[in-house]
């Protein structure tokens, strides 16, 4: 039986009154395997009359409902006086037009999909060798004298703790746009790398020395605890010092800030180039920000899920400028977005995306802002 809470979410969705949080809860509920039969019974009992002319395909209805929910998440208020346009919801289509008309509506697209030209994840070894890593393949990573350092299986590379090295030797992983990759370091620390990220790290940490890595881009760290060897992440001027914790750090060159979000444990953020060696300590649920222009640090409370949802292939924006959004879209979809509408870059949006294509994402924005765009190969031009 569908709970009153979920049924309320469905009703509010059909009335186009859902909040972003309610849309998230509804889509997550539908995707849970244990709710499949409940959803099927609900569809059959509540839509039996309205779609009796066409036998309901519950799986297709579920898929299309999820797709429409994702599109509708972008309908939260944009920070201008312009009223958002009303969206057509799958619920109204189901109730009024029947499943076949719904399918026709969902299948239509007025834009050409971009051609995503994939690049490989690259590993660069200390001796200068550069090797591609296939997400579907496997590879043995060896030292220059042939010793096994690590093993790659799919989108994860695991380093061994061998005690064989007497001096530090670094490898660098480079993750292109449109890809993600995971690395397990020799101490057991897990690092989840987002698109457009590079990480330089020792193939094995040495006894008695701090564990240090160097990041450009965005990564989530689950640091193995070792009180004798602090773990340090270097990102431009910023140095993060931890013992054992979980946190997300975002440092993309095009962004004005370096952001660190603490999920669990504790972390200290230091600026190594300041005369007074400025530092702050974070508690879980807090975000530390370093402004590159003002050279100032600040702390604020955040919803950590918003900043870590990319690990589940989701993008969540809250009061974000379109400029920052399009940069994130470029990385996720491996496209170039050229915006010729200067005012649009400064507009702020709340939006959530996961299963949508880049074309569907742009259509969502075009519903709430007067903009046109065209897709030419791997480039998007907004006019």
Description:
It comes from Flagellimonas sediminis. The chain crosses the membrane at residues 84-102. GO terms for molecular function: sigma factor antagonist activity. The chain has 383 residues and is of the alpha+beta class. It has three domains: 4-107, no CATH class; 121-306, Jelly Rolls; 319-382, Phage tail protein beta-alpha-beta fold. The protein contains ten helices and 23 strands. The chain has helices at residues 4-14, 20-31, 36-46, 58-72, 90-96, 99-107, 304-308, 322-333, 342-346, 358-368, and strands at 121-124, 130-133, 138-142, 148-153, 156-159, 170-175, 181-184, 190-193, 197-202, 211-222, 231-235, 238-242, 246-251, 257-264, 267-271, 279-282, 286-291, 296-301, 315-321, 336-339, 348-353, 373-376, 379-382. The strands form three sheets. The chain has an 18-stranded mixed beta sheet that branches. A three-stranded mixed beta sheet has the order 20-23-22. A hairpin with a 5-residue loop joins β3 (138-142) and β4. α1 (4-14) crosses α2 (20-31) and α2 (20-31) packs antiparallel against α4 (58-72). The termini are far apart. The relative contact order is 0.11. Mean pLDDT is 78; it is low at 45-56 and 74-118.
Summarize the model shown.
This protein is of the alpha+beta class and 383 residues long. The protein is built from ten helices and 23 strands. Helix 1 (4-14) crosses helix 2 and helix 2 (20-31) packs antiparallel against helix 4.
